[in-house]
Amino acid sequence: MSKGLLFVVSGPSGAGKGTICKKLIEKIDIDLSVSMTTRKPRPGEIDGKNYYFVSEEKFIQTINSNGFLEYAKVYGNYYGTPKEVVLKKLEQDRDMVLEIDIQGALKIKESYPKGIFIFILPPSMSELRKRITGRGSETEDDINLRLGETLKEVSYIDKYDYCVVNGEINEAVNRVAAITKAEHSRVSEDIYQLIAKYKEEI
Amino acid sequence: MSKGLLFVVSGPSGAGKGTICKKLIEKIDIDLSVSMTTRKPRPGEIDGKNYYFVSEEKFIQTINSNGFLEYAKVYGNYYGTPKEVVLKKLEQDRDMVLEIDIQGALKIKESYPKGIFIFILPPSMSELRKRITGRGSETEDDINLRLGETLKEVSYIDKYDYCVVNGEINEAVNRVAAITKAEHSRVSEDIYQLIAKYKEEI
User: Which of 3.40.50.1820, 2.60.200.30, 3.40.50.1110, 3.30.63.10 would CATH assign to domain A34-94?
Assistant: First the structure.
């Protein structure tokens, strides 16, 4: 009944938003939005699948032509969500899911407020600590700093439509899938087209 | 995370809201709200399951003590949704589903605005005509009158949160089930309790 919808899956690092998106596209009929970056591809990464790998010149051109839903520079590399690809798929009635950090999600909310914003939460801070510690690459101080940042990030949750606690991964994926299904049944402007059709019929 | 939610399943006669509710309670963990009535039980109807069968005196007492989420008098009999039963179950974290006509749903929206209002639509007016004609009890004029009324009723759809087109019954039930699941992931005041818990943990 409605056009394609854009689902923005976001949340603090370690909450599991990447895994949720990966499993979601296996489970339901939805396309994953692919970011553009100036970072060099790592072994095994495929252009157009993991990222669109482009030169800095091309990236800046795209910025200047207002071609991103959001972009950011991280550790000297640019990352962005190309607007045209996403909007074209939505117009073709394809749902899209986009995995992004909280800063990026807030930018998308400005550039595409019709998006549906889903915040992924870890089941608890102690569980998040365990997940980060499991990666083994950070000191106790680093971890405490990260958890403090997470707490700050979580305060942006009121900008989101939904929040899914990622305790058991399949349950979390099922919840996101239910959100995508429910959102297609929202009363929206499209409904008036259907009502108009009823009137013609009678 | 949240308390029980009240889902109000409503729509024009013939759209199939009764069948949807019946299948929904078989499929997911939700209780059907039972109405109170002064009408006499028909053979096979069970008090407390199909209706709470009460005297007119008792019904009017309940009206006077503000004990209904909504009530109406139809062909000389009273029908109403007893407030206490519904609210108690919601407080006990039980989800409730309530099948009701459009006038009733609009009254519930006033008495319990936190409810989630789902409008069930027939796939087309010609399909609705077929369903009504199939019942065999009405003349052509009656049917045209009914369809005209349906069209008026459909204009209240903008008071609702969701609308589900009942073409294939199992697909419609799945949609309502997805709505119940998604609504439990809405960002609401409850989320701040979880965040407070995070803060204590850190």
Answer: 3.30.63.10
